Amino acid sequence: HRLSTGEMEEIVAAHPAVAECAVFGVNDALKGQNPMAMVVLKNDFHGSHKEVEQQLVQTVRNQIGAIACLKNIMCVERLPKTRSGKILRKNLRQLIDGEELQIPSTIDDPSIFEELTLQLAENKI
User: Fold this and answer.
1) pLDDT band of 2, cuts 50, 70, 90
2) What is the sign of the dihedral through the CA atoms of 52, 58, 64 and 68?
3) For 102-118, what is each residue's pLDDT tens digit?
4) Between residues 17 and 67, which one has the greater pLDDT?
5) Average pLDDT of every residue of the chain
6) Strand 72-76 relative to strand 32-41: parallel, antiparallel, unpaired?
7) Whole-model pTM?
8) What's the rounded Cα separation, in Å, for the pair 46 and 25?
9) What are phi and psi of 86, to 5 degrees?
10) Which of 43, 75, 81, 82 could bridge 106 with an S-S bond, Cβ 3.0-4.6 Å?
11) Predicted pLDDT of residue 31
12) 118: number of Cβ within 10 Å
């Protein structure tokens, strides 16, 4: 089945605790690709990250259907962006898949990938 990461991203972004997010496909040996979300929570959010992640999984499942297997959700401090504000989803996918990062010259802050690598290790992803 072909699922739209854009549709999933709209659903995730609509959650009241989410400031911004990116949903992108990561390699999976069995299914080809699985969707993954990186979520930045609002500054005034003081609840459990795990609880929000579970709510997001359930919301996507309810609105798209059981075929939508958005199970990999990670709360992060910030997302990699270009100076104009575009989220670098391709670089996020490369980071998760263990590919060589092809960081564009227009990136706002290249140190974000070091931060994300540490967060990925902490979350065992």
Assistant:
1) low
2) positive
3) 999 999 999 999 999 99
4) 17
5) 92
6) parallel
7) 0.90
8) 29
9) -75, 130
10) 82
11) 81
12) 10
Cβ-Cβ contacts under 8 Å for 59 (sequence gap 6 or more): 11, 12, 15
Region of residue 104 (phi > 0: left; psi between -120 and 50: alpha; otherwise: beta): beta
Burial of 91 (0-12, 13-18, 19+ CB in 10 A): buried
Give the residue among 79, 64, 51, 94 at the shortest CA–CA distance from 4: 64
Number of residues written out for the chain: 125
Please count the other Cβ atoms lying within 10 Å of the Cβ belonging to residue 93: 17
Q: Give residue 97's domain range.
A: 5-122
* CB-based contact 33:47 (threshold 8 Å): no
Cβ pair 79, 108 in contact under 8 A = no
Q: Six-digit token pair at 88?
A: 């670098």
Among the listed residues 104, 118, 29, the one whose alpha carbon sits nearest the alpha carbon of residue 74: 118
Q: Is the pLDDT of residue 1 over 80?
A: no
Number of domains forming the structure of the chain: 1
Q: Are 92 and 22 in contact (CB under 8 A)?
A: yes
